[in-house]
Amino acid sequence: PCAFAALVALSFSGAIGLTFLMLGCALEYYGVYWPLFVLIFYFICPIPHFIAKRVSDDSDAASSACRELAYFFTTGIVVSAFGFPIILARVEAIKWGACGLVLAGNAVIFLTILGFFLVFGRGDDFSWEQW
């Protein structure tokens, strides 16, 4: 029951984040769909974590080089996702209002991804691997 409520909350927050992203693109005042390229960052964000989890051994070490490298790449992907709409707004490819909506959507989506790994990535009897 608790995992089901967490899954519903995470899906709701993901829908809110994608709504912000779509509003930044589809409102008639903005009308440019360049910010949709941040979807690529959403999809590649968890990949370093998956690779590090698969490659590194499951020892109880405080940290491993592989895990730290995955954190580094994930941080670079997240920073790039926030920087991309700012650069688009600076070169006037999109308006600043659209940039703000995309940044709000980025914050919500990345917090949703983080929440997913915090809730379902503990490695206990109920984990994300079942999904």
UniProtKB/TrEMBL annotation:
Q: Which InterPro entries match?
A: Vps55/LEPROT
GO BP terms in the entry: late endosome to vacuole transport via multivesicular body sorting pathway; negative regulation of growth hormone receptor signaling pathway
Keywords for the protein's UniProt record, in alphabetical order: Endosome, Golgi apparatus, Membrane, Transmembrane, Transmembrane helix
Where the protein is mainly located, per its record?
A: membrane
TM segment ranges: 33-51, 71-88, 94-120
Membrane topology value: Multi-pass membrane protein
Provide the family line.
Belongs to the OB-RGRP/VPS55 family.
Name it. Answer: Leptin receptor gene-related protein
Organism this protein belongs to = Rostratula benghalensis
Gene name, per UniProt, is: Leprot
